[in-house]
UniProtKB/TrEMBL annotation:
Domain of life (superkingdom): Bacteria
SUPFAM superfamilies: Zn-dependent exopeptidases
Protein name (Swiss-Prot/TrEMBL): M20/M25/M40 family metallo-hydrolase
Amino acid sequence: MIDEILRTLDDVPALFARLEREITAERAHRYLAALESVPAPSQTARWGRVPVVERLLREDGVLDGPRVGWEPDFAAGGNAALTLGVEGRAKRVWLLAHLDQISYALDPGDHPTYPLVPLCFHMQRGGRHPALAVGHDLATGTVVVHARGEIVVDGPSIAFHAADDRPLGPGTRVVYDPQLAWDPGTGALAGQLDDTVACAAMLLAAGVLRHYPVEVLIGLTDEEEGAPGDANQSFCRGGRRLVRFFDPPALAIVSDVHESEAMIRGPGPRDLRPGDGAVFAERSSSGRGTVTPPLLYAFQQAMAESLGERGVLLRENWGGYVSRSEDINATILTPNIALVGFLCSNRHYAADRPRAHMDDLLHLARVFVCYTLLAHSDLWGRVTRREP
């Protein structure tokens, strides 16, 4: 199988040359910095990060292709959809990641301190981190910063302490201020990163995939982050308003943070750390979310070994905790879900700023390209339809 995978990819015209030429650290940083510079509490991606995505795609000529479609607010559902190919509903591969970031609503307080209500899975265990209070500006149609300050956690208390004099009220959302940092020498990344790394990787992948005859939906969703709860229906609300418009895919690749150390819900990965490459896992939320079918998982294991021979690193994350994401929406239409993501420490600012590695973003983008092309190949049909 490894030789067959390599032959299939080697037969794709100029594939590995394009991966090296178009998926670069400099371009990845430009994408990531642009996304992280815009606050995106849930329910606001359409007004903040989606215009940034469109600008990046236009600057790099991705939207100029004859088989490229772009809907910044697909079916008025708040999600952005980038499509490749000529089919409307029938997209062979879905790539799903979320544009929104964790956020908090305000309860009444005495300025400058306001109690916070998590509209997310709150994980900060203590201390303080820079934060922004944002709201919608009707005059400009954008999300604007009303105040800077800090999210302060002291025991069970979660509060926003504003550094500005302006009083705040309902309709305000508080988000962490990512203050993205990249060290080109070490590759280290620090910032929000969830899920901007995967979004940036998908946009980079789109720049390569547009050159090939593929049918792809890249869904950049809103409201993936949601109120805490064990039920799958408590979050990922935005994606449910997107996937129902498309036919079942042959493959849905869902990408989000894979925690790089033991966290609240489970252990960290075995013998893996940020910088080791993109990662794939078998199940999300300890099986409460989705589980990759054995056939597809075996194919991913062979694919990972094959890609390693071409310098694309995809590592198996066995035992490490992976949270639920858009997989809970994709599973409504297909069992063929691949949980492919990146290692990141301190998800949701658990103990410090989240940290990841630039190399993993680059490998992730290249994996998206290769996996998508394999899912369009004759090899895929032979493997997935083979009779017992």
